[in-house]
Amino acid sequence: MTINTTTVGGVATIEIARPQKKNALTLAMYDAMTDALEAAVADEAVRAVLIVGQPGIFTAGNDLEDFMQRPPTGEESPVFRFMHALAACDKPVVAAVTGAAVGIGTTMLLHCDLVYLSEDARLAVPFVSLGLVPEFASSLLLPQLMGRAKAAEKLLLGDPLTAAEAADFGIATAVLPAAEVLAHARRMAERFNSLPPGAVRDTKRLMRAGSKDGILRAMRAEAAVFAERLRSPEAKEAFEAFFARRKPDFSKF
Ligand code: COA
């Protein structure tokens, strides 16, 4: 089992649990997370969703073996279904992040409502280093949040974001000692039990109304380029280098 789901006290928890592979997300894991999000939306007893990783690792992003062997083919592929389900989730989504959050581990946070990071959390969007391009509307949202010049450092050079930077740029709600992140995030999620769910839902919808269409457009535009990039010799070199534990050589391109 690599995605654990539980619903307790009004909170549907989605736990990424594949620590031996740094919580890298496979097709089956995206499907399980999509199912859990859809079930949470449909269940009247659920007031909030909580997404958590393992101590010291949120997720190393998309499974790179899957990217090589089973690349996403279109809107119906598991990764896109997950992105659409999270972007469309009408209940509050809270994330608790300790350790690394790479690729979609970071970009999914841009679609959560409350994001709690440990002091040692490291966010990274190293798409270019993998021969790829940003996804989940991060090419739109990161420049909006950070300004284009700072976003270029993260998206073009692939430099990680510290937890403090993520909080400064409004990507994270708060930064806490690692041992407190999960309990704090759960407490915040449970607060929705005592709030009127209709007003919460309408407020979330209104907060996103202005950006929703642009986000969907960006996701689609990114997805088209991403699919091409996955087949590129640059990406092949990057993936092979990762699994061979060597530095990629882009000098020949
Ligand atoms: N896909 C598939 N396997 C992955 C993975 C990924 N995204 N990330 C890590 N793993 C695997 C490693 O291959 C390794 O497997 P092995 O023990 O069978 O050799 C295992 O998880 C542990 O990873 P390792 O790199 O040794 O851990 P680390 O603590 O040194 O580093 C990370 C952790 C997250 C910094 C590093 O694993 C990493 O950079 N992963 C790739 C991140 C990435 O590029 N994601 C895609 C973004 S689009």
The CA-CA distance between the termini, in Å, is 40 Å
Q: How helix-rich are the residues, as a percent range?
A: 40-55%
- The value of Rg in angstroms is 17 Å
CATH 2nd-level architecture of the domain at 3-176: Alpha-Beta Complex
Model description:
The protein is an alpha/beta fold. The chain has a domain at 3-176: 2-enoyl-CoA Hydratase, Chain A, domain 1. It has 10 helices and 10 strands. The strands form 2 sheets. The protein has a 6-stranded mixed beta sheet, with helices on both faces. A 4-stranded mixed beta sheet has the order 4-6-8-9. α1 (27-42) packs parallel to α3 (78-88) and α5 (138-146) packs across α9. The radius of gyration is 17 Å and the shape is globular. The mean pLDDT is 97. Coenzyme A (COA) binds next to α2 and β6.
Short description:
This protein has ten helices and ten strands.
Observed structural traits:
2-enoyl-CoA Hydratase, Chain A, domain 1, 6-stranded mixed sheet, 47% helix, 253 residues, 4-stranded mixed sheet
Secondary structure topology:
Layout: E1 3-8, E2 11-16, H1 27-42, E3 48-52, E4 57-59, H2 64-69, H3 78-88, E5 93-97, E6 100-102, H4 104-107, E7 114-118, E8 122-124, H5 138-146, H6 148-155, E9 161-162, H7 163-168, E10 174-176, H8 178-190, H9 197-230, H10 233-243
Helix pairs in contact: 1-3, 5-6, 5-9
Bound molecules: coenzyme A.
Coenzyme A binds at residues 21-22, 24, 60-65, 100, 102-103, 126-127, 130.
